[in-house]
Amino acid sequence: MKLILLSLMTSSSLAIAQNTTDANKATPEKPKLTQEQLETKFKTTLTQATLTGRWCAIQEGKLSPEKKDRYSIESVSKIKGDQWLLKARIQYGGTDLLAPVPVQVKWAGDTAVIVVDDFSLPGGGTYSARVLVYNDTYAGTWSAEDHGGLLNGIITHAKESAQKSADQ
């Protein structure tokens, strides 16, 4: 009996391994982008871009109701290494300013992760964030001195928005 069970288990394992190998052969591998290509794509994705989505706070270990969120990025430039500068339009309360925001950009494979550490807004507190950017979407987490939360949404560009308005 043990011999029959062992034989069945071995046959099943070989069949699964063969199917897995065949499936891997059927799916062509996507060519990997070079670091320069990844950085160019990142810059293009965020230049003249609007990030529109939702955010929520984390309060006492629970998510608050979501609120609408919107960020505008005028330009993106690499300084050196993983240091970048985002020129972002920041609007809060009665304030509306174009500010240079120094960030680090780390890479998780082909996905950019924007790292903001202790960025101070005039009259608006100090913030840190980790935001990933992938295929015209963003998602991340942020924190301030006494609170924090989550954010996510889509990335559009001025010419795309104008075209969508013209089509409607």
Short description:
The chain is α+β, with helices and mostly antiparallel strands.
- Percent helix: 25-40%
Count every helix, treating DSSP H or I runs of 4 or more residues as helices.
Answer: 3
Q: How many strand elements?
A: 9
- CATH fold-level assignment: Lipocalin
The neighbouring-strand order within the major sheet is: 1-3-4-5-6-7-8-9
Q: Would you identify the CATH architecture? A: Beta Barrel
Describe the main β-sheet briefly: 8 strands, antiparallel, barrel
**Silhouette:** globular
Q: Give the amount of beta strand, in percent.
A: over 45%
Q: What does this protein look like?
A:
This protein is α+β, with helices and mostly antiparallel strands. It has one domain: Beta Barrel (Lipocalin), CATH 2.40.128. The chain has three helices and nine strands; from the N terminus they run ααβββββββββα. The protein has helices at residues 2-26, 35-46, 158-167; strands at residues 49-59, 62-63, 67-80, 83-92, 95-108, 111-121, 125-134, 137-143, 148-157. Strands 1-3-4-5-6-7-8-9 form an eight-stranded antiparallel barrel. β5 (95-108) and β6 form a beta hairpin. The chain is globular. Mean pLDDT is 83; it is low at 3-17.
Primary descriptors:
9 strands, Lipocalin, 168 residues, disordered N terminus, single chain, globular, alpha+beta, eight-stranded antiparallel barrel
